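Box 3.1 A note on notation
Throughout this textbook, protein chains are presented in two layers. The first layer is the amino acid sequence; the second is a token string describing backbone geometry. Keep the layers aligned when reading.
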Amino acid sequence: MTEITAPETAAAQPQLPPLHVLLAAPRGFCAGVDRAIQIVEVALQKFGAPVYVRHEIVHNRFVVESLEAKGAVFVKELDEVPDDRPVVFSAHGVPKAVPAEAQRRNMIYVDATCPLVSKVHREAERHHESGRAIVLIGHAGHPEVVGTIGQLPDGAVHLVETVEDVATLIVADPENLAFATQTTLSVDDTGAIVDALRERFPNIAGPKREDICYATTNRQAAVKEIAPKADALLVLGAPNSSNSVRLVEVARGHGCTRAMLVQRAAQIDWPRLDKIRTLGITAGASAPEVLVDEVLTALRERFTVTVEEVVTATENVVFKLPRVLAAE
């Protein structure tokens, strides 16, 4: 008797391991970044290509390359820009000498400085006019810090980066001081530095409202909520983006030691995500949502993904475009 066997069936697809994603909200673009990108795009529409941009408009290569494809040309300094072409100044702000030089050359220029950075500039100027020296809390060499220091004469601003810097700070008149901060710092670290300043200089004046911007504060708060619950956490952002780097530090400081900064899905260190079950994801204020979508797509190729959005704040801030770009 001949045995009849059933035809072979296709091999069953291997079961992907489960992964629960905690997606931070808010995340990604803030109002200042959104405005800066719009400024370049509208300038290209109004003036035609090329439109020059001094420094990266925001710290994100994906954004910069997207604008380059539309006709933007990024340069380091104003002397690389022809007199007859418009130039945009980055969202981080510039020293006063830069627009002064553009005016001297009769150039068309558009200032894309975030209004919250401009607020810090105005505060520093007011304190200087009142006879106070300025203590600026920030990171040396960061474009925003360079721009803020460049609002005032040489020597008017003292930069401190750490609590230890406060202890060694030498000022001419300890009774006539004011402090300001870079807008993208760690809320907790900056608070410690401010406390040290107030302890050493009890009469130091501060901003009427917090200098660290709402977007930085909100994104750090969301990471603080997610980090203790996550086996690992990805921050979408650039290594030269201060607010993105701070998000990694905040995550590690609140219980998630496997917090990593990645610019694109292709940079994910997959072995470090081996055997995890809960993954946090956020994006720095200059990282577009398309990069978050890209990471989720890559995750779904390797895991059975469920996504939970963790909402800690709702943002509805919008900044107007400069008048020079208004429709004629």
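The two ends are 92 Å apart (CA to CA). Residues 1-10 have pLDDT under 50 and may be disordered.
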